Amino acid sequence: MIVLKSHSQREGMQGKRGLTIIELVVVMCILGVMVLIAIPNIGRWLPRYRLRSAARDVASNMQLARLGAIKDNREWALLFDENGESYRIISDKGPDGNWGTADDVGYKGDVSPWPLSTRSLTDYKNVGFGDSGHGPAGGGGPVGDGVTFVQKRAEFNPGGTSTAGTVYLQNNRNGAMAIRVDSSTGIIRMWTWDSSWKRM
Q: At 152, which CATH number?
């Protein structure tokens, strides 16, 4: 059976067409302007994002050490190396009973040079230890080189408490963050610099 379309049905089908070249050029111009507006904002946002990511990772790894100490019923520690812009998560002092020696056991049981346990700040472009000269956060002591823990070590014991101290991180845009551990409770708090230190 052959179906013939009326003249009005044929005209309706012809009215449905794609974009014209002019419409496509206008859309491309609008997208181009939006990208040009966004690029400077990305340039300001990215350093702050990297700094926050590094600070959150330090805080998360401190929490990991705290919970590991409670679970394993033995001390865990984070050992900071300002010169190497890195830190290690250590779950056991090893046979010699001292932190920071070659017989330490790292996170997930790895041993020297602790490939699984070492975290590097160089993974976050332009982020390092320090506070950009803003001074202590949350009533902490003198900042020094960016790590105020005694012997550059945050120790967590089986009770979940810790040695007191603060780790300061900074970026190349005068941004700074601090991760502070309270000794009596082992609570880990984060601070950010925004014309003054503010707790997160």
A: 3.55.40.10
